[in-house]
Amino acid sequence: MNENIMREMGFGKEMDAVKAGKCPSCEQPVDPNSFRDELSRKEYGISGLCQPCQDKTFGPGDADSRPEESEEEARLAYEADQDYQRRKDQAAEDRVDRLRDDRLED
User: Fold this and answer.
1) How far apart are CA 16 and CA 21, in angstroms?
2) Which among 43, 101, 47 has a CA at the least distance from the CA of 77?
3) Total domains in the fold of the chain
4) How far apart are CA 33 and CA 71, in angstroms?
5) What global pTM score does this model have?
6) What DSSP designation does 34 have?
7) pLDDT tens digits, residue range 16-63?
8) Structural domain harbouring 15
């Protein structure tokens, strides 16, 4: 999530919840290791929703067909997702800065 864009769109309260480690929907603390699979962790990186709120929003899916992950695999995948999101957000902010600088030069 690009924080500046989300705040400008009126999602400041939700961004504050995510930054505080809480779900923006139910406002409960989110345990990064509580997600059932890679797709759920990716959704968390996008929306900040906890697993129960994802299930309410998208449906629980077919839990029997999901592969089991170890806690270590889940932690590593979560950290990789967070790193990717930070790099993506930084690239977006860099683009905005370049555009702003280009406009100032004109």
Assistant:
1) 9
2) 43
3) 1
4) 7
5) 0.55
6) G
7) 999 999 999 999 999 988 999 999 999 998 899 999 999 999 887 655
8) 3-105
